[in-house]
């Protein structure tokens, strides 16, 4: 034993050194990855054996209970590690099939499932489907409306697509899709969520995989063109990928090797005959997608296409994200009861393992709770869940952790790091733990809830109710540290090894809990439509102008744009309706709603108005390209401390373009009149310097008192006796400058004149 304790630490130090050198020299080489994965599995296996046979407590009921719970979590984690590295062991070698390889093109029915999503969101998806580069006579688009809304039927009529509804909402989304199947007859079926906009090449890249009769469905990643709550609330859009990207693109590619690709409810093309053979989309569970995919894979093949071919909206608030994961968690546990992977006919052993692993994943909230609770129980109450000293930790835990860190960093391709995984898990752990226990034991019936999309708010909100467990455990962590300091001062002694190990553990858990609090601070979302960075030249012109104005497009959505023009052309800018050319032969009608000088440029905001169908389709085709909708897909030095400091620095700032809710438009040589309450017959001439929907800046020879109520008339702006109040005044060379705030900014005549900032 003495030889072991003498030389094993040196051996492990050498292993760690070799690991790091291999990682630094050739991090992308397939052989290096595989060697590091093997070492990761071996060191973690050694750690688990050490934990099982040498560290479990043998005295005290609470000690033994916590010891068994903790080691059980670690054993399950090790099994999940084995499954994970099996998936990422090597990339999928699926050969791409070209559409030119097909003898003929099959007909495709597109089902857009909708319930209560905003029309603006649904409209983008319909336009994306109409823009698909696939023969138009072979595609039929169906708005499958379970909300029975007249506005959706009108949208279908406006765009020339089919409208389907039914008398009841039985089986929610699955029932909606099955009803659509009964009303249609296309050879293939594409299912899309209401917010998922397909890119033009979607069918060209997916349909060819049905060249044989064995493929049941082709799954495309769900990708998102807005920021999820982790990216948005932490001001980390350019630093971390969307939280779902790792599963959608990395893990799905691994599942493809074992014919276990998960159907994720959208962006999926099915062979109709395969669906009919299993009785249509699975019903009786919240997550019909997982069950449907599993039943199909018992009889047919599935394909994962790694390329992003459709983009949608991620949950836009922290509460909506939790509701979405609540539904997924309950649905997976329901599937385990009704469609047990161990009993579904036709599945291979690996398929069963992967589906079971997916179900077990939704219990990770419980496991995380035990990891958080364990060191606190020891430091507060002396409940010991394991026995270890520093030398043992160095010999077994450190190699396992370090090899896991390097292996995960290599195979994740910087889409996910271990610490950000810790933050994701900590933020949702308590909620998902409660959901899992509730669904497992109470079997409470929960109504299917659609994740809200298209949220707009100018308020900041902290979701305190969801964060109460986090606050409690953070306070307990602080209490632990205070108690340790007190014990050392009073008693002067402590079990140094175990205490220091658990202090480190508490601090690590505390960091995850603290970062979770930041995620729960929802930032304002000022716009209904997401803006895409464009940065290309365009043209502004009007029917009343012989020459167009050269402009530079900065950002753009389907409802408006921000652009710049040379300041020397500002006088040519027409304040009425104009036409914005965003490409050589594509344009959209717009109104100038604000402008302000910035250096030698005039920044201009336009709102798209009276957009015709052809214009809107061109606009969506222009905006929804892989280049425009791409969001960060790699982690970029997103350390916790930097993220927190960025949150503190930016959290109270209003975006530059929105520091005034309605940006002021400068006016030149525009005059008006001003009268006072109680003296309406006295009209004072004033000069108007700028104006917005909410107010204006004026200059007058008369004195205007602060907070004085006035009526303002501006002939060129079709504004007559508009009530206003002076919110600031100043004297310059015997004249008064004043800022007026319109008392009724929602006044219809103002809105019609100015439009809204989109």
UniProtKB/TrEMBL annotation:
Subcellular location: Cell inner membrane
Keyword Transferase: yes
One of the record's GO cellular component terms: plasma membrane
Main location: membrane
GO terms classed as biological process: cellulose biosynthetic process; UDP-alpha-D-glucose metabolic process
Any Pfam family matching the protein: Cellulose_synt
Catalyzed reaction equations: [(1->4)-beta-D-glucosyl](n) + UDP-alpha-D-glucose = [(1->4)-beta-D-glucosyl](n+1) + UDP + H(+)
EC number: 2.4.1.12
Domain PilZ: 527-624, 659-750
Molecular function, one GO term: cellulose synthase (UDP-forming) activity
Membrane topology: Multi-pass membrane protein
Key word Transmembrane helix present: yes
InterPro entries linked to this entry: Cell_synth_A, Cellulose_synth, Glyco_trans_2-like, Glycosyltr_2/OpgH_subfam, Nucleotide-diphossugar_trans, PilZ_domain
All copies of domain Glycosyltransferase 2-like, residue ranges: 110-279
Domain of life of the source: Bacteria
Annotated transmembrane regions: 6-23, 35-53, 65-88, 359-387, 393-411, 467-486, 498-521
Annotated keywords: Cell inner membrane, Cell membrane, Cellulose biosynthesis, Glycosyltransferase, Membrane, Transferase, Transmembrane, Transmembrane helix
PANTHER family: CELLULOSE SYNTHASE CATALYTIC SUBUNIT A [UDP-FORMING]
Name of the protein in its database record: cellulose synthase (UDP-forming)
Species: Bacillus safensis
Gene: bcsA
